[in-house]
User: What shape does this take?
Amino acid sequence: MSRIGRKPIALPKGVEVKVDGRHISVKGAKGTLEMDMMPQINVSLEDGQLIVSRENESKPVRAAHGMTRALINNMVTGVNDGFEKILEIVGVGYRAAMQGKNLVLSLGYSHTIEVVTPAGIEFACESPIKIVIRGIDRQLVGQVASNVRGYRPPEPYKGKGIRYAGEYVIRKAGKAGAKK
Assistant: This one.
């Protein structure tokens, strides 16, 4: 069996889970998340823990077992604590600012880039070079962070661009001067 799929999911106080056939709904202090599961994956609530099991040993079902457990665990964590990604901006004149709920980026182009805040996401600029993306859906937070990073990914020569906090950018040497 999957080592991840076998682990029970502990439910913190204040988190309610409803399993309705193949549909699971998780409600907590920060909001509600829902998901549909494969027909061969079963979820049961026992002693304040969620147990994810599978009906057979076919390869697609075994592959989905651990993933389903991880997705449900992310839903429980999201509605209880939430998720956040931190982006850093490196480069002279590159900066971010909030305009209402939207994020405005100045990244060296001839125009500014306005990122409209999607539903379920919250942007925050702690400084002109630091962007925090928060939400309860881990997949959505990661996708929005990736989209924002994609406007100016870090380049390998000077390291300018938008990067994740703690990301290491491999630097290249650049041109050597012509010798005569």
Summary: Residues 59-80 form the longest helix (22 residues).
